[in-house]
């Protein structure tokens, strides 16, 4: 083999070796990237599963106006004796309480009246935040898979449930304000049958009706989501 042919042969051989090396490197890198993406997908799905368990637990506690340990550490009720006395006076509000009783009810209202509303508000805030975290995980998985998978985890329904619970929380807060107005109106000298009290009671009924609708919508969403 002359020198020119030998040089061409070696050059061709080197080119083949280079191409094979590049192909091996390409497939190696591709395999490594695919493996990393598979790991990311697995980890993200695991995070979503854990987050769904947490969101479901908070949702169920919120639906029964309960609280988890975090919320109980934030929102404190009045003492047991004050709670008993407050509930007793509140239940007898339509029975023409005397001024001393109304004054005591007003005092206790400041300590006990907003407890359940505040607890509901904190639980709803927690639910909203955890749904936002869930959304972040789902969006992350959508990027990994290069497709929208929000429907796979019923993300929109979870967001709607959060909104319905927030609506209920606001309505509970409205009821607390109206209860306070009733006590103040009675302390001003109006009786339980006065037009002023009847006007407030009409507002109470309207809020309660709206609350029933919001509760029914939230219950329907929750039943569908948690049964998935």
Q: Quick recap of the structure?
A:
With 228 residues, the chain is an all-alpha fold. The protein is 83% helix and 0% strand. It is built from seven helices and no strands.
Molecular structure report:
The chain has helices spanning 3-63, 69-74, 80-91, 99-113, 115-145, 155-187, 195-226. With 228 residues, it is mainly alpha-helical. Helix 1 (3-63) runs antiparallel to helix 7. The longest helix is centred in the N-terminal third of the chain and has 61 residues, at 3-63.
Instruction: Write the element-wise H/E pattern from the N-terminal end onward.
Output: HHHHHHH
User: Based on DSSP secondary structure assignment, what is the total number of beta strands?
Assistant: 0
Strand fraction: under 5%
Radius of gyration: 32 Å
Oligomeric nature of the chains: single chain
Determine the mean pLDDT. 86
| Overall form | elongated
Distance between the termini: 75 Å
Ranges where pLDDT stays below 50 over 5 or more residues in a row are: none
Percent in helix: over 70%
Count helical runs: 7
Structural class: mainly alpha
Largest sheet: none
């Amino acid at each position: 083999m002359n020198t020119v042919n030998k040089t061409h042969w070696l050059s061709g051989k080197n080119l083949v070796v280079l191409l094979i090396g590049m192909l091996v490197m390409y497939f190696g890198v591709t395999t490594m990237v695919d493996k990393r993406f598979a790991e990311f997908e697995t980890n993200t799905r695991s995070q979503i599963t854990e987050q769904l368990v947490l969101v479901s637990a908070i949702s169920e506690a919120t639906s029964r106006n309960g609280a988890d340990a975090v919320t109980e550490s934030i929102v404190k009720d009045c003492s047991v004796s004050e709670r008993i006395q407050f509930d007793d006076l509140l239940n007898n509000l339509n029975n023409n309480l005397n001024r001393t009783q109304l004054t005591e009810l007003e005092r206790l209202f400041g300590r006990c009246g907003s407890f359940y509303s505040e607890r509901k508000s904190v639980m709803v805030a927690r639910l909203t935040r955890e749904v936002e975290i869930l959304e972040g995980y789902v969006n992350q998985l959508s990027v990994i898979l290069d497709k929208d998978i929000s429907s796979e985890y019923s993300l929109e329904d979870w967001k709607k449930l959060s909104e319905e619970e927030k609506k209920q929380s606001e309505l509970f807060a409205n009821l607390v304000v109206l209860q306070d107005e009733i006590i103040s109106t009675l302390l001003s000298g109006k009786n339980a049958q006065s037009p002023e009290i009847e006007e407030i009671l009409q507002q109470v009924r309207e809020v309660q009706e709206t609350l029933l609708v919001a509760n029914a919508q939230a219950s329907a969403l929750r039943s569908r989501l948690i049964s998935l």
